[in-house]
Amino acid sequence: MKQLRNILNKILEVLAGVSFFVMVVLTCWQVFTRYVLQNPSSWSEELVSYMFAWMALLGASIVVGERGHMNIPVVVERMGKGAQMFFSIFSEVVACVFAAVILVFGGVQITTLAMGQMTSSLGVPIGIFYVVLPLSGVLNVIYTIINIYDIVKGNIDVLPGGEEQPEEGKEA
Fold first, then answer.
1. CA angle centred on 159, ends 106 and 143, rounded to 5°
2. Per-residue CA distances from 114 to 19, 23, 104 (Å)
């Protein structure tokens, strides 16, 4: 599971990094065309906004994988290890159900509907840009399953944001 998590993390980090770099380049292009050439580029502005959504959702998947989502553990951290494990698994199940229903199912629905609409400047179906919703949902489901497995196996701390536990026989 650790190998799968590492592979997904690397892919998502590269995609998020590349999209951020492309967004910076396109934004500089927009400024150049608007103020130097006096002929603003509308397609680059539209593409930057779609790329921002992709970067944000793929980045959110990384956060799910790191169990870095927002939580307030004031009550749970005072409980015993069994209760902490239960609530950690419960929070992962809730995140998994949300990802499956809202992002995957809802994302497929909205992507399908949006395939018939074209973007104003780029002239491509809007649904292409909405594909990130079900993609991010599938990634979140995979990450939550990995997280549940690692919580049960004791490979990660039961409270989100905790440090990974060293594997047996290995030093930290």
1. 35
2. 22, 23, 15
What's the mean pLDDT in 11-22? Answer: 89
Q: Are 165 and 154 in contact (CB under 8 A)?
A: yes
Residue scoring higher pLDDT (45 or 164)? 45
**What's the rounded Cα separation, in Å, for the pair 94 and 97?**
5
Distance CA 5, CA 61 (A): 11
DSSP state letter for 156? B
d(CA 87, CA 155): 16
Across 20-29, 41-50, 116-125, the highest mean pLDDT is recorded for: 20-29
The DSSP letter of residue 116 is T
Lookup result for tokens 């951290």: 77
* Torsion sign over Cα 105, 111, 112, 113: positive
The predicted structure's pLDDT at residue 154: 83
Considering only residues 132 and 160, tell me which one the structure prediction assigns the higher pLDDT. Answer: 132
